[in-house]
Amino acid sequence: MIYTTTETVPGREIEAILGVVNGNVVQSKHVGRDLMAGLKSIVGGELKGYTEMLTEARTIATDRLVVEAERLGADAIVGVRFTTSAVTDGASEIMAFGTAVKLRA
User: Fold this and answer.
1) Contact (Cβ atoms closer than 8 angstroms) between residue 93 and residue 87
2) End-to-end Cα, the chain, rounded Å
3) Distance CA 12, CA 96 (A)
């Protein structure tokens, strides 16, 4: 599956738009990691536990996006975007969305 943030796939022609697809996940960190992040916020620096959490969540959301596009028979997803929001303290939602398309053979 080709997925891209651009509105086209270079060198390929879009034959049909199959619809908007998305994938999302709400993810949180272990309470121990949450405590360490709280301490780290006092002295500054990267909160690596949260960086890892969001990286993992983005991968899961992208995988779900691709599965939804495959169900529609898509060859590619164009205009892919990511959004995030806090659901509760220590838990975030990552959503990936784009347009599933069929490419001309």
Assistant:
1) yes
2) 14
3) 23
pLDDT in tens, the chain (105 residues): 999 999 999 999 999 999 999 999 998 865 455 555 555 556 667 777 778 888 999 999 999 999 999 999 999 999 999 999 988 776 789 999 999 999 998
pTM score over 0.90: no
Dihedral Cα 29, 68, 83, 26, nearest 10 deg: -20
| Residue 2: both structure tokens together | 């080709």
Q: Which pair of structure tokens corresponds to residue 40?
A: 């780290």
CB 21 within 8 A of CB 76: no
